[in-house]
Amino acid sequence: MINIKENEKLSIMNHSCAHLLAQAIKHLYPEAKFWVGPVIEEGFYYDVDLGDKVITEEDLPAIEKEMKKISKDGKRIVREEITKKEALERFKDDPYKIDLISRMDEKDTVISMYTQGDFTDLCRGPHVDTVKELKHFKLLKVSGAYWKNDAKNKMLQRIYGICFDNEEDLEKHLQELADAKLRDHRKLGKELEIFMTSDLVGKGLPMYLPNGYIVWQELENYIKEKERKQGYKHVLTPPLGNVELYKTSGHWDHYKDSMFPAMKVEDEEFVLRPMNCPHHMMIYANGIHSYRDLPIRIGEIARDCRFEASGALKGIERVRTFCQNDAHLFVTPEQIGDEFKRVVDLILDCYKDLGITDYEFELSLRDKEDTEKYYPDDEMWDKAENVIRKVLDDIGIPYKEMIGEAAFYGPKLDVQLKPAVGNKITVSTCQLDFCLPMRFDLTYVDRDGSKKTPVVLHRAVFGSIDRFIAYYLEETKGVLPVWLAPIQAIIMPVSSEHQADYAKEVNDLLAKEDIRVELDARNEKLGYRLRESQIKKIPITIILGDQEKENKTISYRLFGTKETTTLSQEEFLKYIKDLIKKRTRM
RNA sequence: GCCGACUUAGCUCAACUGGUAGAGCAAUGCCCUCGUAACGCAUAGGUUAGUAGUUCAAGUCUACUAGUCGGCACCA
Q: Which domains does chain A have, with CATH numbers?
């Protein structure tokens, strides 16, 4: 999907279109006051204050119509430069513009304004020459947005739109938006019976149906095997813990508002655990460790509960209970670089297995100004941030540095996966932590017999299994590779009377090999049953008629194709096992 | 949590400005025994998310509650 921000021409055009939108709003709602109207990856928006007047999606066509009208008039867009003092005078009745102007640096003696017909807006520019150039646009949605992105401020109304330089590109983009809806994991999850929710159970608490749990178990088995091969040991710990545990770890101070309220039982207070680090710290603390034992790698598919804001919940991507593919790696300071690299290697190895090719790395750093959020130890932070930088540079993968995105205890590397259509999802992560081991007094005995504090790496390849399933459903449009498919193959005798016995024979053959196979010998036309197998996105459909019965062969077609291939039973078994083993994407 | 919209049968959706819920698919039964995306016929299925209210009359109007969706804020 196009990124408007990265295209200079479209970026200017969209920015001008935001002004056009503001002008149209001013015509239709003269009392409107304007905040800012920037370009974003998906087009542009403008934040407006309309007092008590509420704009809904139904009002958008009328605004668009007014925009078209202004565009037809074809006024030039004229730049004007004035001093800060003049600007303050000129916009004195507009509190929002005054706010913007007064925050501008005194050294910026020149402030620019753009005027098109009866509308003037404060703006750095640049813009297109005339509003006539703005023809191929669409207003997409409205929503509330806090003034200055701060939830403590009042809410303005935000109107989103997008603009192209020709009608075909606009149509194409709108089609892509429609396609994105079709591959939404919430829609696919319902259609393919992956998961459900129930109002009575509670929102954000998904329940995996038999199909979904098959996907879940396959992913769990897969990642645990990968981890075992990298020397991880898996543990099982309780999904709740004493409040004191989180006070010790420091999580309580930072996140108590998003923990499910503590419950008091026999003088002890418990919370449902929002993360597994403290439990794993205690597992490390269970014994004495020598420098020879490190790295120690403790992994768990661990259930966590977080009291996410209701508005943040989304399918199985953002929920109130989920299972992290979590692990904590305890290393000596010298081992940090190597171990960090092994984690990145594991992540990339898994992506290769799963055919994931579109992703970007983000290095999340602390904001040095924010002394409240981050653990106060500049030396530690610098050291940690540099270690990660070095690993990334050594591996040679490009990454973006994100200031102020680190966890309170340390910097982290996040991997953003980009589905072919739709929003980016953060899945894999690797975080460096010098802080928790100290808070829990964790030690190892070094070569010289002295006690040292280990460093911890927190990491997750799938993030949460839940979120990964959401991502992979969208990525594959619900056509899961054979190894993950709830039903791997479906068998259809052409006639339920004539080949039922042979269909049963093939069914038993595959079932004996632990292939998830189903027999559809219903009294329906082949076309009817075939249509159903396509709707269910079953990767392999086996069709058995008199010819196959006669020759003891298997004819199959793959999802989305029309060709039929005929193999002997042995050949077919080898073929399907190979697909499963290689995790081939359909 | 905030702003806004939405919620009708298992699913997808209808029902003009208020007049007492309807279709396709799925399900069930019969028929058909069929070679690559829907054979035909019949049956059953709904206190229109919930609660209160306005009205002679509420799916439709109002209020509240719950959930969903689009954003904002949040995301260890």
A: 4-182 (3.30.980.10), 210-237+274-475 (3.30.930.10), 489-582 (3.40.50.800)
